[in-house]
Amino acid sequence: MIKEKELIKNIEKYAEPFSHTEGLQPLIENASHAKFVLLGEASHGTSEFYKIRSDITKQLIQHHQYSFIAVEGDWPSCYEINRYIKGIATEYKNGEDVLKKSFTRWPAWMWANYEMVELIEWLRNYNQTRNEEDKIGFYGVDVYSLWESIEAIVKYLKKTNSPILQKAINALECLDPFEKKPEKYGISSAFYGENCVSEIIELLHNIQNDKQRFKDDSEARLNMTINALVAKNAEHYYYTMMTNDNESWNIRDRHMVEALRHIASFYGTSTKGIVWEHNTHIGDARATDMASEGMVNVGQITREQYSEANIYAIGFGTFEGTVIAGHKWGEKPEVMVVPKGTPCSWEEALHQSSPGNKYIIFNEENRKEFSNIIGHRAIGVVYNPNFEHHGNYVPSRISERYDAFIHVDKTNALKPL
Fold first, then answer.
1. Domain shared by 291 and 401, yes or no
2. Cα–Cα distance between 389 and 227 in angstroms, integer?
3. pTM value?
4. For a 10 Å CB count at each end of the chain, is N or C smaller?
5. 302: three-class secondary structure by DSSP
Protein backbone atom coordinates (compact mmCIF):
# COMPACT_ATOMS: atom_id res chain seq x y z
CA MET A 1 0.00 0.00 0.00
CA ILE A 2 2.90 2.35 0.75
CA LYS A 3 4.36 1.62 -2.69
CA GLU A 4 1.03 2.48 -4.31
CA LYS A 5 0.92 5.78 -2.42
CA GLU A 6 4.46 6.54 -3.53
CA LEU A 7 3.55 5.75 -7.14
CA ILE A 8 0.52 8.04 -7.03
CA LYS A 9 2.66 10.78 -5.47
CA ASN A 10 5.21 10.43 -8.30
CA ILE A 11 2.48 10.55 -10.93
CA GLU A 12 1.18 13.76 -9.36
CA LYS A 13 4.70 15.18 -9.48
CA TYR A 14 5.63 14.28 -13.06
CA ALA A 15 2.38 13.94 -15.01
CA GLU A 16 1.07 16.83 -17.10
CA PRO A 17 -2.69 17.25 -17.69
CA PHE A 18 -4.05 17.83 -21.19
CA SER A 19 -7.49 18.30 -22.69
CA HIS A 20 -6.57 18.76 -26.37
CA THR A 21 -3.64 17.56 -28.46
CA GLU A 22 -2.14 21.05 -28.30
CA GLY A 23 -1.34 20.21 -24.69
CA LEU A 24 0.95 17.40 -25.86
CA GLN A 25 3.47 19.69 -27.55
CA PRO A 26 6.35 18.98 -25.09
CA LEU A 27 5.89 15.24 -25.69
CA ILE A 28 5.73 15.70 -29.49
CA GLU A 29 8.87 17.84 -29.41
CA ASN A 30 10.69 15.13 -27.45
CA ALA A 31 9.55 12.44 -29.86
CA SER A 32 10.44 14.41 -32.98
CA HIS A 33 14.17 13.76 -32.62
CA ALA A 34 13.76 10.00 -33.14
CA LYS A 35 14.07 8.17 -36.44
CA PHE A 36 10.95 6.15 -35.61
CA VAL A 37 8.12 7.29 -33.35
CA LEU A 38 6.14 4.28 -32.13
CA LEU A 39 2.54 5.16 -31.20
CA GLY A 40 0.80 2.47 -29.18
CA GLU A 41 -2.74 1.69 -28.03
CA ALA A 42 -4.14 -0.36 -25.18
CA SER A 43 -6.87 -1.75 -27.47
CA HIS A 44 -7.68 -1.96 -31.17
CA GLY A 45 -11.13 -0.49 -30.62
CA THR A 46 -10.80 2.82 -28.75
CA SER A 47 -11.73 6.07 -30.52
CA GLU A 48 -9.51 8.41 -28.48
CA PHE A 49 -6.36 6.39 -29.16
CA TYR A 50 -6.90 6.75 -32.92
CA LYS A 51 -7.74 10.45 -32.72
CA ILE A 52 -4.74 11.35 -30.55
CA ARG A 53 -2.36 9.27 -32.68
CA SER A 54 -3.78 10.97 -35.75
CA ASP A 55 -3.18 14.44 -34.29
CA ILE A 56 0.36 13.57 -33.21
CA THR A 57 1.03 12.09 -36.65
CA LYS A 58 -0.10 15.29 -38.41
CA GLN A 59 2.20 17.36 -36.19
CA LEU A 60 5.18 15.11 -36.89
CA ILE A 61 4.53 15.22 -40.64
CA GLN A 62 3.89 18.96 -40.87
CA HIS A 63 6.59 20.26 -38.56
CA HIS A 64 9.21 17.52 -38.16
CA GLN A 65 9.74 15.98 -41.63
CA TYR A 66 8.31 12.50 -41.10
CA SER A 67 7.79 10.68 -44.41
CA PHE A 68 5.52 7.68 -43.84
CA ILE A 69 3.14 5.86 -41.52
CA ALA A 70 3.48 2.09 -40.94
CA VAL A 71 0.60 0.37 -39.16
CA GLU A 72 -0.38 -3.00 -37.71
CA GLY A 73 -2.35 -3.89 -40.82
CA ASP A 74 -2.10 -6.04 -43.93
CA TRP A 75 0.19 -4.77 -46.69
CA PRO A 76 -2.22 -5.24 -49.65
CA SER A 77 -5.12 -3.46 -47.93
CA CYS A 78 -3.00 -0.60 -46.59
CA TYR A 79 -1.30 -0.21 -49.94
CA GLU A 80 -4.67 0.84 -51.37
CA ILE A 81 -4.72 3.68 -48.81
CA ASN A 82 -1.19 4.56 -49.94
CA ARG A 83 -2.34 4.68 -53.57
CA TYR A 84 -5.37 6.79 -52.66
CA ILE A 85 -3.53 9.42 -50.60
CA LYS A 86 -0.85 9.72 -53.31
CA GLY A 87 -3.50 10.35 -55.97
CA ILE A 88 -2.84 7.10 -57.85
CA ALA A 89 -6.06 5.21 -57.05
CA THR A 90 -8.72 7.00 -59.10
CA GLU A 91 -11.16 4.12 -58.68
CA TYR A 92 -12.08 5.20 -55.15
CA LYS A 93 -14.62 7.96 -54.56
CA ASN A 94 -13.26 9.01 -51.16
CA GLY A 95 -11.48 7.82 -48.04
CA GLU A 96 -14.51 5.95 -46.75
CA ASP A 97 -14.78 4.10 -50.05
CA VAL A 98 -11.16 2.94 -50.03
CA LEU A 99 -11.48 1.67 -46.45
CA LYS A 100 -14.75 -0.20 -47.06
CA LYS A 101 -13.43 -1.93 -50.18
CA SER A 102 -9.91 -2.66 -48.95
CA PHE A 103 -10.57 -3.97 -45.43
CA THR A 104 -12.97 -6.88 -45.58
CA ARG A 105 -11.23 -9.53 -43.47
CA TRP A 106 -11.98 -9.74 -39.72
CA PRO A 107 -11.21 -7.56 -37.74
CA ALA A 108 -11.97 -4.99 -40.44
CA TRP A 109 -12.93 -2.30 -37.89
CA MET A 110 -9.28 -1.79 -36.92
CA TRP A 111 -8.83 0.34 -40.05
CA ALA A 112 -12.28 0.62 -41.63
CA ASN A 113 -13.59 3.15 -39.13
CA TYR A 114 -14.71 6.78 -39.16
CA GLU A 115 -11.71 7.91 -37.13
CA MET A 116 -9.38 6.76 -39.95
CA VAL A 117 -11.42 8.47 -42.68
CA GLU A 118 -10.52 11.90 -41.36
CA LEU A 119 -6.78 11.14 -41.29
CA ILE A 120 -6.80 9.60 -44.77
CA GLU A 121 -8.53 12.62 -46.30
CA TRP A 122 -6.07 14.91 -44.50
CA LEU A 123 -3.12 12.92 -45.89
CA ARG A 124 -4.55 13.06 -49.41
CA ASN A 125 -5.04 16.83 -49.22
CA TYR A 126 -1.59 17.30 -47.71
CA ASN A 127 0.03 15.23 -50.46
CA GLN A 128 -1.58 17.37 -53.15
CA THR A 129 0.67 20.22 -52.02
CA ARG A 130 3.83 18.08 -52.26
CA ASN A 131 6.17 17.02 -55.04
CA GLU A 132 5.79 13.40 -56.12
CA GLU A 133 8.96 12.27 -54.36
CA ASP A 134 7.94 14.04 -51.12
CA LYS A 135 4.46 12.59 -50.72
CA ILE A 136 3.65 10.88 -47.41
CA GLY A 137 3.18 7.10 -47.58
CA PHE A 138 0.88 4.74 -45.68
CA TYR A 139 1.76 1.05 -45.32
CA GLY A 140 0.77 -2.10 -43.42
CA VAL A 141 3.58 -4.16 -41.89
CA ASP A 142 1.67 -7.15 -40.51
CA VAL A 143 2.18 -10.73 -41.65
CA TYR A 144 -1.29 -12.23 -42.05
CA SER A 145 -2.02 -11.63 -45.77
CA LEU A 146 -0.54 -14.82 -47.25
CA TRP A 147 -3.15 -15.30 -50.00
CA GLU A 148 -3.83 -11.62 -50.62
CA SER A 149 -0.14 -10.84 -51.07
CA ILE A 150 0.42 -13.60 -53.63
CA GLU A 151 -2.77 -12.56 -55.45
CA ALA A 152 -1.41 -9.00 -55.60
CA ILE A 153 1.87 -10.31 -57.04
CA VAL A 154 0.03 -12.35 -59.70
CA LYS A 155 -2.07 -9.32 -60.65
CA TYR A 156 0.97 -7.09 -61.11
CA LEU A 157 2.99 -9.69 -63.02
CA LYS A 158 0.06 -10.24 -65.38
CA LYS A 159 -0.24 -6.51 -65.95
CA THR A 160 3.46 -6.21 -66.81
CA ASN A 161 3.67 -9.47 -68.84
CA SER A 162 6.43 -10.67 -66.55
CA PRO A 163 8.37 -13.85 -67.42
CA ILE A 164 8.19 -14.87 -63.75
CA LEU A 165 4.38 -14.84 -63.72
CA GLN A 166 4.22 -18.64 -63.73
CA LYS A 167 6.24 -18.77 -60.49
CA ALA A 168 3.56 -16.69 -58.76
CA ILE A 169 0.75 -18.78 -60.25
CA ASN A 170 2.49 -21.94 -59.00
CA ALA A 171 2.56 -20.55 -55.47
CA LEU A 172 -1.09 -19.50 -55.62
CA GLU A 173 -2.20 -22.86 -57.03
CA CYS A 174 -0.29 -24.63 -54.27
CA LEU A 175 -2.28 -22.62 -51.69
CA ASP A 176 -5.68 -23.09 -53.38
CA PRO A 177 -6.62 -26.35 -51.59
CA PHE A 178 -6.38 -24.58 -48.21
CA GLU A 179 -9.29 -22.24 -49.10
CA LYS A 180 -7.72 -19.13 -47.55
CA LYS A 181 -7.95 -20.75 -44.11
CA PRO A 182 -4.67 -20.16 -42.24
CA GLU A 183 -5.43 -22.79 -39.59
CA LYS A 184 -6.02 -25.39 -42.32
CA TYR A 185 -2.69 -24.57 -43.94
CA GLY A 186 -0.91 -24.51 -40.56
CA ILE A 187 -2.18 -27.96 -39.56
CA SER A 188 -1.35 -29.44 -42.95
CA SER A 189 2.13 -27.93 -42.95
CA ALA A 190 3.04 -28.66 -39.31
CA PHE A 191 1.62 -32.16 -38.96
CA TYR A 192 1.38 -33.65 -42.46
CA GLY A 193 4.32 -32.04 -44.24
CA GLU A 194 2.07 -30.60 -46.95
CA ASN A 195 3.19 -27.04 -47.60
CA CYS A 196 4.10 -24.46 -50.24
CA VAL A 197 7.53 -23.45 -48.93
CA SER A 198 9.48 -24.25 -52.09
CA GLU A 199 7.05 -22.43 -54.38
CA ILE A 200 7.01 -19.31 -52.19
CA ILE A 201 10.80 -19.20 -51.72
CA GLU A 202 11.33 -19.61 -55.46
CA LEU A 203 8.91 -16.75 -56.12
CA LEU A 204 10.69 -14.51 -53.58
CA HIS A 205 14.09 -15.17 -55.16
CA ASN A 206 12.78 -14.44 -58.65
CA ILE A 207 11.29 -11.12 -57.53
CA GLN A 208 14.50 -10.14 -55.75
CA ASN A 209 16.52 -10.92 -58.88
CA ASP A 210 14.16 -9.17 -61.30
CA LYS A 211 15.49 -5.67 -60.49
CA GLN A 212 15.50 -4.48 -64.09
CA ARG A 213 11.73 -4.77 -64.36
CA PHE A 214 11.20 -2.11 -61.66
CA LYS A 215 13.82 0.42 -62.72
CA ASP A 216 11.15 3.01 -63.67
CA ASP A 217 8.80 2.36 -60.74
CA SER A 218 10.57 2.03 -57.41
CA GLU A 219 7.31 1.97 -55.43
CA ALA A 220 6.10 -0.98 -57.52
CA ARG A 221 9.31 -2.73 -56.55
CA LEU A 222 8.66 -1.95 -52.87
CA ASN A 223 5.12 -3.31 -53.25
CA MET A 224 6.34 -6.54 -54.84
CA THR A 225 9.21 -6.96 -52.39
CA ILE A 226 7.02 -6.64 -49.30
CA ASN A 227 4.26 -8.85 -50.71
CA ALA A 228 6.84 -11.56 -51.40
CA LEU A 229 8.32 -11.06 -47.93
CA VAL A 230 4.83 -11.38 -46.40
CA ALA A 231 4.25 -14.61 -48.32
CA LYS A 232 7.48 -16.15 -47.04
CA ASN A 233 7.08 -15.04 -43.43
CA ALA A 234 3.33 -15.72 -43.29
CA GLU A 235 3.91 -19.30 -44.44
CA HIS A 236 6.47 -19.71 -41.65
CA TYR A 237 4.16 -17.97 -39.18
CA TYR A 238 1.15 -20.24 -39.86
CA TYR A 239 3.32 -23.36 -39.66
CA THR A 240 4.90 -22.27 -36.36
CA MET A 241 1.58 -21.13 -34.88
CA MET A 242 0.56 -24.78 -34.62
CA THR A 243 3.68 -25.87 -32.76
CA ASN A 244 5.07 -22.89 -30.82
CA ASP A 245 2.81 -19.91 -30.14
CA ASN A 246 5.57 -17.76 -28.60
CA GLU A 247 7.88 -18.26 -31.57
CA SER A 248 5.07 -17.44 -34.01
CA TRP A 249 4.73 -14.11 -32.17
CA ASN A 250 8.47 -13.53 -32.68
CA ILE A 251 8.20 -14.32 -36.39
CA ARG A 252 5.41 -11.76 -36.71
CA ASP A 253 7.26 -8.94 -34.91
CA ARG A 254 10.54 -9.64 -36.69
CA HIS A 255 8.63 -9.42 -39.95
CA MET A 256 7.18 -6.06 -38.95
CA VAL A 257 10.67 -4.68 -38.32
CA GLU A 258 11.97 -6.15 -41.58
CA ALA A 259 9.11 -4.54 -43.51
CA LEU A 260 9.78 -1.25 -41.71
CA ARG A 261 13.42 -1.41 -42.79
CA HIS A 262 12.43 -1.86 -46.45
CA ILE A 263 10.01 1.09 -46.28
CA ALA A 264 12.59 3.35 -44.61
CA SER A 265 15.16 2.37 -47.24
CA PHE A 266 12.69 3.29 -49.99
CA TYR A 267 12.33 6.81 -48.56
CA GLY A 268 16.07 7.30 -47.97
CA THR A 269 18.65 6.69 -45.26
CA SER A 270 17.83 9.87 -43.35
CA THR A 271 14.06 9.36 -43.42
CA LYS A 272 11.88 9.36 -40.32
CA GLY A 273 8.75 7.23 -39.90
CA ILE A 274 5.73 6.83 -37.62
CA VAL A 275 4.53 3.40 -36.46
CA TRP A 276 0.99 2.63 -35.18
CA GLU A 277 0.70 -0.65 -33.28
CA HIS A 278 -0.67 -2.10 -30.07
CA ASN A 279 1.24 -1.43 -26.84
CA THR A 280 2.24 -5.11 -26.76
CA HIS A 281 4.22 -4.54 -29.97
CA ILE A 282 5.73 -1.08 -29.47
CA GLY A 283 6.53 -1.25 -25.74
CA ASP A 284 9.91 -2.94 -25.15
CA ALA A 285 9.29 -6.64 -24.39
CA ARG A 286 12.32 -6.72 -22.09
CA ALA A 287 10.38 -4.60 -19.60
CA THR A 288 7.54 -7.16 -19.37
CA ASP A 289 7.05 -10.83 -18.57
CA MET A 290 7.31 -11.53 -22.31
CA ALA A 291 11.09 -11.64 -21.89
CA SER A 292 10.94 -14.63 -19.52
CA GLU A 293 8.94 -16.51 -22.17
CA GLY A 294 11.53 -15.88 -24.87
CA MET A 295 9.39 -13.36 -26.73
CA VAL A 296 10.59 -10.21 -28.50
CA ASN A 297 8.69 -7.36 -30.12
CA VAL A 298 8.98 -4.33 -32.38
CA GLY A 299 9.88 -1.99 -29.51
CA GLN A 300 12.78 -4.17 -28.41
CA ILE A 301 14.09 -5.07 -31.87
CA THR A 302 14.05 -1.50 -33.19
CA ARG A 303 15.87 -0.24 -30.09
CA GLU A 304 18.49 -2.94 -30.58
CA GLN A 305 18.89 -2.32 -34.32
CA TYR A 306 18.66 1.47 -34.48
CA SER A 307 19.76 2.44 -30.92
CA GLU A 308 17.51 3.72 -28.16
CA ALA A 309 18.12 7.34 -29.17
CA ASN A 310 16.49 6.67 -32.55
CA ILE A 311 13.32 5.12 -31.13
CA TYR A 312 10.60 6.94 -29.19
CA ALA A 313 7.83 4.66 -27.91
CA ILE A 314 4.60 6.20 -26.59
CA GLY A 315 2.19 3.94 -24.70
CA PHE A 316 -1.54 4.62 -24.35
CA GLY A 317 -4.04 3.56 -21.71
CA THR A 318 -7.43 4.22 -20.12
CA PHE A 319 -9.09 3.79 -16.74
CA GLU A 320 -12.62 3.00 -17.98
CA GLY A 321 -15.01 3.43 -20.90
CA THR A 322 -16.21 1.39 -23.89
CA VAL A 323 -14.42 -0.50 -26.66
CA ILE A 324 -15.18 -2.34 -29.92
CA ALA A 325 -14.15 -6.02 -29.87
CA GLY A 326 -15.44 -9.54 -30.49
CA HIS A 327 -16.12 -12.19 -27.86
CA LYS A 328 -14.52 -14.76 -30.20
CA TRP A 329 -12.39 -14.59 -33.32
CA GLY A 330 -14.61 -13.93 -36.33
CA GLU A 331 -17.69 -12.99 -34.30
CA LYS A 332 -19.56 -9.78 -35.00
CA PRO A 333 -17.85 -6.94 -33.10
CA GLU A 334 -19.82 -5.11 -30.46
CA VAL A 335 -19.47 -2.23 -28.04
CA MET A 336 -18.30 -3.55 -24.67
CA VAL A 337 -17.82 -1.84 -21.34
CA VAL A 338 -14.21 -1.52 -20.20
CA PRO A 339 -14.23 -2.01 -16.40
CA LYS A 340 -12.45 0.42 -14.14
CA GLY A 341 -8.75 -0.32 -13.79
CA THR A 342 -8.11 -3.08 -11.30
CA PRO A 343 -6.70 -2.09 -7.86
CA CYS A 344 -2.92 -1.63 -7.77
CA SER A 345 -2.72 -1.45 -11.57
CA TRP A 346 -1.01 1.28 -13.62
CA GLU A 347 -4.39 2.45 -14.88
CA GLU A 348 -5.87 2.71 -11.41
CA ALA A 349 -2.84 4.63 -10.09
CA LEU A 350 -3.09 7.15 -12.93
CA HIS A 351 -6.78 7.67 -12.17
CA GLN A 352 -6.24 7.94 -8.42
CA SER A 353 -3.57 10.62 -8.86
CA SER A 354 -6.27 12.90 -10.31
CA PRO A 355 -9.15 12.02 -12.65
CA GLY A 356 -8.56 13.41 -16.11
CA ASN A 357 -6.26 13.01 -19.09
CA LYS A 358 -2.53 13.24 -18.51
CA TYR A 359 0.84 12.30 -19.97
CA ILE A 360 4.22 11.47 -18.49
CA ILE A 361 7.58 11.83 -20.22
CA PHE A 362 10.13 9.40 -18.79
CA ASN A 363 13.69 10.73 -18.46
CA GLU A 364 16.80 10.45 -16.34
CA GLU A 365 15.17 12.44 -13.55
CA ASN A 366 12.13 10.22 -13.06
CA ARG A 367 12.70 6.90 -14.84
CA LYS A 368 13.69 5.10 -11.64
CA GLU A 369 10.46 6.24 -9.93
CA PHE A 370 8.37 4.27 -12.45
CA SER A 371 10.56 1.19 -12.84
CA ASN A 372 8.80 -1.11 -10.37
CA ILE A 373 6.74 -3.94 -11.87
CA ILE A 374 3.02 -3.15 -12.11
CA GLY A 375 0.04 -4.62 -13.98
CA HIS A 376 -0.75 -2.73 -17.20
CA ARG A 377 -3.96 -3.44 -19.16
CA ALA A 378 -3.96 -4.78 -22.73
CA ILE A 379 -7.16 -5.44 -24.71
CA GLY A 380 -7.09 -7.35 -28.00
CA VAL A 381 -9.58 -7.78 -30.84
CA VAL A 382 -11.02 -10.67 -28.82
CA TYR A 383 -12.13 -9.51 -25.39
CA ASN A 384 -14.32 -10.54 -22.48
CA PRO A 385 -14.59 -7.80 -19.83
CA ASN A 386 -15.83 -10.32 -17.25
CA PHE A 387 -12.51 -12.15 -17.24
CA GLU A 388 -10.03 -9.36 -17.92
CA HIS A 389 -8.49 -9.49 -14.44
CA HIS A 390 -7.31 -13.04 -15.17
CA GLY A 391 -5.24 -12.28 -18.25
CA ASN A 392 -5.44 -8.73 -19.55
CA TYR A 393 -2.83 -7.16 -17.26
CA VAL A 394 0.79 -7.39 -18.38
CA PRO A 395 3.41 -7.06 -15.59
CA SER A 396 5.52 -4.13 -16.77
CA ARG A 397 8.27 -1.72 -15.80
CA ILE A 398 6.49 1.21 -17.41
CA SER A 399 9.41 3.66 -17.68
CA GLU A 400 11.56 1.00 -19.37
CA ARG A 401 8.79 -0.20 -21.62
CA TYR A 402 7.99 3.29 -22.98
CA ASP A 403 9.62 6.69 -23.42
CA ALA A 404 6.32 8.41 -22.61
CA PHE A 405 2.77 7.48 -21.72
CA ILE A 406 -0.61 9.04 -22.56
CA HIS A 407 -3.53 8.31 -20.24
CA VAL A 408 -7.11 9.01 -21.30
CA ASP A 409 -9.20 8.59 -18.19
CA LYS A 410 -12.49 7.68 -19.87
CA THR A 411 -12.63 6.46 -23.44
CA ASN A 412 -15.22 5.55 -26.07
CA ALA A 413 -15.54 2.76 -28.60
CA LEU A 414 -14.24 3.16 -32.14
CA LYS A 415 -16.90 3.77 -34.81
CA PRO A 416 -16.72 1.10 -37.55
CA LEU A 417 -17.86 2.08 -41.03
1. yes
2. 38
3. 0.96
4. N
5. helix
Torsion, Cα of 269, 272, 276, 278 (10° steps): 70
In 3D space, the residue among 301, 316, 278, 273 whose CA is nearest the CA of residue 36 turns out to be: 273
- Decide if 36 contacts 309 (C-beta within 8 A): no
Q: Convert the pLDDT of each residue in 387-405 to its tens digit.
A: 988 789 999 999 999 999 9
Do 342 and 397 have their domain in common?
Answer: yes
Region 314-330 average pLDDT: 97
Pair (329, 359) in one structural domain: yes
Per-residue pLDDT tens over the stretch 251-294: 999 999 999 999 999 999 899 999 999 999 999 999 999 999 99
What does the longest C-alpha to C-alpha distance in the chain come to? 71
Q: Is the pLDDT of residue 217 over 80?
A: no
The reply to whether 295 and 182 lie within a common domain is no
Give the DSSP H/E element, type plus range, for residue 138.
strand 137-140
Nearest to 282 by CA among 66, 39, 24: 39
Evaluate whether residue 379 is within a structural domain. Answer: yes
Are 305 and 247 found together in one domain? no
Enclosing H/E stretch for 17: strand 16-17
Domain assignment of residue 85, yes or no: no
Q: Backbone phi, then psi, for 137, in 5-degree steps?
A: -105, 160
Give the residue among 22, 121, 119, 24 at the shortest CA–CA distance from 69. 119
What CATH number did the domain enclosing 314 receive? 3.40.1660.10
**Backbone φ and ψ of 214, nearest 5°:** -110, 15
Residues 6+ apart with CB under 8 A from 29: none
Nearest to 45 by CA among 319, 315, 334, 368: 334
The domain boundary, picked from 184, 217, 251, lies at: 251
Question: Domain check: are 228 and 307 in the same one?
Answer: no
- Do 190 and 308 lie in one domain? The reply is no
**How many folded domains does the chain comprise?**
2
Which among 244, 278, 163, 152 has a CA at the least distance from the CA of 210?
Answer: 163
Strand partners, 360: 405
Pair 282, 405: CB distance under 8 Å: no
Do the beta carbons of residue 233 and residue 143 sit within 8 Å? Answer: yes
Name the DSSP letter for residue 364: T
